[in-house]
Structure formats: structure tokens, C-alpha cells
Amino acid sequence: MIKVAKFGGSSVASAEQFRKVKSIIQADPDRRFVVVSAAGKRFSDDNKITDLLLLANAHIQYHVDSQPLLSQIEQRFVEVAKSLDLKYPVAEKFEEFSSVVTSLSPEYIVSRGEFFTGQLMAEYLGLPFVDASDTIVFHHDGTVDFERTAIRVKEAAQRNPRGFVLPGFYGCTVDGTVKLFQRGGGDITGAVLARCLEANVYENWTDVPGFLSADPHIVDMPRAIHRITFDEMRELSYMGATVLQEDSIFPVREANIPIQIKDTNSPDRKGTTIRETAEEREVEHLITGIAGRKDFTAVHIQKTHMSDKVGVVRSALSVFERYGVSIEHLPTGVDSFGIVVNSADVKDKIYPIITDLRREVAPDDITVTDKLALISIVGRNLRRRPGSSGLIFGVLGKAGINIRLITQSSQEISIIVGVDNDDFERAIRVMYDGFAAHEKV
Predict the structure, then answer these.
(1) Which residues lie below 8 Å from residue 321, measured CB to CB, with a gap of 6+?
(2) Do residues 35 and 166 touch, judged by C-beta distance below 8 A?
(3) Rg of the chain over CA atoms, in angstroms?
(4) Do the beta carbons of residue 396 and residue 415 sit within 8 Å?
(5) Beta bridge partners of 375
(6) Average pLDDT of the chain?
(7) What number of other Cβ atoms are within 10 A of residue 221's Cβ?
(8) Is 194 helix (H, G, I), strand (E, B) or coil?
(9) For the whole model, what pTM was predicted?
(10) Using an 8 Å Cβ cutoff, are 329 and 407 in contact?
(11) Phi and psi torsions of 46, nearest 5°
(12) pLDDT at 283 > cutoff 80
């Protein structure tokens, strides 16, 4: 069995965290392939190594002395090495890097956070270090070359059958130029490695115990989600429930490899397992989770006998496309439809958009509703239980919360309601208390 274990920045922030990682790896012999992020914050007012390297690079770009910052970063690595009695000459190697830093590319500079963290972790775990520059291959457009990457990963695994440590966040183009993933790219590296190794499980170790069924800043002690499908996770992540970098889902989803979100600080906790489908016996809750976001705008268009005319909706959508505005939702009726967008996207464009809609669609009426919040109630069991929508609307109505908009996903795993921004937090609490809080864990 192969488990790829990826550890985020908080999991490798200090020597103490390194010790926790080692205990986790030693607890399961299947955890042979390890991916690490750059060292993160040790405490709330601390700095992430990646942020310090980005700042150092900015200093270089503006011809400001970056050496004090680089010395601060070096000291972080030296402290870990000394505390764990590691032999890797991190001070010497980092000073070599610092001495030529002004001649290096920004992406190379920023990648050194993962590089040096990986070197230290490899020695501490007693595993070989495999450089992502030699393993993760990018096309020049920034996408991963899976064919070349898979070949290199399998060759590295053959050379190192006991496993290895791979730094996340970066790789190289075919001509040897270091290239970064977007922020959070360590998660993507782990998923790519899991896919190329045809792993049984991709473990993502972080500082949270997995997905929660609601935002803990809104709902007091929401229950954990122990099992969730990829589709449910996508729905919740899109509405703001972010635990995992979204692009890290697709490599493992395509290979049908489950993801486990685990807490480095509490490794015995169950965490969250994400996979393509859920077994029938696992469907325990009507609602898997509730998430939402504020500040949407809905443009409602009414046109008599619209259903008899061809191209009305297309004409309206083309106006938004012309202004570069992405559509969030499109609730429709017989003689009307709504176009829901992020308010920020139309902040300086709404009046010319309305003018163009009047000219090109010739509606009977247009109304604009702003300060709208959208809340997604997600659950793979919603489609199996009659009256789910009625239950949701009933608890909101009982609480006196006006529903401004209703839409449902085509897969029937989510129901989205629109409420006023001012009712956002209360609506989430009401729905959680009505459905999730009293269900068995």
C-alpha cells in the first residue's frame, strides 16, 4: 500500500513540529513518500518563510538590501537543524544561495523555502531528498506535464523504494527553468505525486481536523465532516469553506484516489476523507455542510412571452461577457430570469451593463438587487429525502428571514438560497441548528 503524506507550512514550522511529523511517519510504514511545504508560522505574529522570501525578492527588485531578511530566514533553518542535531550544512548552503541571490529568478528565490525545509526533513526522517526540479515538469504555459512527470516520479521511486521527501510548490520546465505553482501549490504537488505513484491514499496534514459542517466563526462548535464526496467538497469550497487548495483535487480525483485531511497536532483524530462516491451505509446526515458568501448582485430581467423567443438569455449573457463579468447563478422563470454576479465584478460597470441590456434585450423591466448573500446547503442525501427544500425554507421562514433567491444544482446535491447580507450569519445558524446540530455524528 502506498500513502503520500503532504505536510503544510504549520506542520513544519519548528523543530517541535518536525518531531510530530516524524512520529506520524513512523506510525505507519505505508507513509513512505513525503511532500513538505516551506516552514510556516510558529505563532500568530510570526512570518511564513515563503512570505519572507517574497519580500526579499521585492527588495531585490527595488534595489533595497535584502540581506537582513535573508539572514532572518537562514536563522529559522539553523535553529531547526541545531535543535534536531542535523548534519546538513544549512547555514553554508543558504549563504551560498544568498551570495548570488540578485542573479536568480524570483521563482527560484521563492522556491528555496520548500527546498531547504525538504532537505532538513529528509535527513530527520532518514529518507532521501528528491528535488522537485528534477521531478515535477511544467509546460511553458504553467500546466503540469503529467507524462514527463510520471516517468520521472516512477524513476525516483525505483531508485528509492523506501520512499523519499519531495519539496512542494515548484518544479521545472523542460529547459530547466524553476517554475512555481500558485500559492498553496504544495497541495498540488502532493496530489500530482499521489497520481503518478498510483497511491492508495493522499494524506494532507495541516493544522485543522478536516472539514467542518459550518464556519466555526458563525456556528459554535460545528460537527466535523468525516466523509465527503469530491462534488460536495467542490460545492462547499466554492462558497468559501476552504481547507484544501482546489487545484489539488483534480489530479487525484481523475485517478480515483481518496484524500484524507488530517491534523498534525492531533493525529489520532479521524479527520475528513474525500472520495468520488460515498457508500450507502455512510449516508448519515441530510446536510453535509453549509457555507456561503456575502456581497452578490442579482439583475432580474422580465420579458413577456420570453419562452416563445429564441436567444433572449444568450443576448443578456453576452452583455456580461463583453464587460468581463463571470456569472455565478442563473435562476429562471417563464417570463423572467435573474443573473447573479459578484458585486465587486460590476461595481463600476452596472450602469453601462443595464443600458446595454435595455438596448439589446428590450426587456419589459429590469431590477437590480444588491447586498445579497448566497448560502449553499450541501448534502448528497438531499435528493433522496422528499421535502428537503421545504424543511430548509420552513426554518428560515419561522425565523423571519426573507428568501430573495432560490436555485438548485443540476446534481441535486446543493440548494442555494439568497438572503440579505444582514441576515447572512443568522440564516446559517438557523439552518445549522435546524438540521445539522442534532443529527448523530
Answers:
(1) none
(2) yes
(3) 25
(4) no
(5) 292, 417
(6) 92
(7) 9
(8) helix
(9) 0.86
(10) yes
(11) -80, 175
(12) no
- Chain centre distance of CA 341: 21
**Among candidate residues 36, 74, 70, 42, the one with its CA nearest the CA of residue 54:** 70
User: What residue ranges of the chain are covered by domains with CATH 3.30.2130.10?
Assistant: 289-436
pLDDT tens-digit readout, 235-271: 888 787 666 766 778 899 989 999 999 999 999 999 9
Strand partners, 166: 35
pLDDT per residue as tens digits for the range 91-116: 999 999 999 999 999 999 999 999 99
Structure confidence at residue 441 as a pLDDT band (50, 70, 90): very low
| Closest C-alpha among 142, 149, 65, 143 to residue 101 | 65
Backbone angles phi, psi at 299, to 5 degrees: -105, 110
Strands (E), 107-193: 137-138, 164-167, 170-173, 178-180
Pairing between strand 31-36 and 3-7?
parallel
Q: Kindly state which CATH superfamily the domain 289-436 is placed in.
A: VC0802-like (3.30.2130.10)
84-89: long-range pairs with CB below 8 Å, 24+:
84/15, 84/18, 84/19, 84/120, 84/124, 86/120, 86/123, 86/124, 87/123, 88/119, 88/120, 88/123
The architecture in CATH of the region 3-207 reads: 3-Layer(aba) Sandwich (3.40)
Which amino acid, residue 286? L
Q: Out of 130-134, 222-226, 233-237, 379-383, which region has the weakest mean confidence (pLDDT)?
A: 379-383
Range(s) for CATH 3.40.1160.10 in the chain?
A: 3-207
